[in-house]
Design goal:
This protein has a single domain, classed as Medium-chain alcohol dehydrogenases, catalytic domain (Quinone Oxidoreductase, Chain A, domain 1), CATH 3.90.180.10. It is 11% helix and 46% strand. It is mainly beta and 72 residues long. The two termini are 23 Å apart.
């Protein structure tokens, strides 16, 4: 899968990353769209100290369910 990875502060790379393994009580969502907001900008430049690279960016996503855990 593709992801926008914060490799270091002020260094974003769009790259292939492994598909996450889901636990029995989780679902995997195939992201179709992801918004970028102010907290993403502050995370990119390191000004908040809350996002530590390396990190996949984006937390306002919408998508479709790709996999469902056995306990869901």
């Amino acid at each position: 899968m593709k992801a926008l990875v914060l490799e270091a502060y002020n260094s974003l790379v769009y790259q292939d990353v492994p598909e996450p393994e889901i636990r029995p009580d989780e679902v995997l969502v195939q992201v179709k769209m992801c918004g970028i907001c102010g907290s993403d900008i502050h995370g990119m430049d390191g000004s908040t100290g809350r996002r530590i690279p390396p990190l996949i960016m984006g937390h306002e996503a919408a998508g479709v369910i790709a996999k469902i855990g056995a306990q869901v």
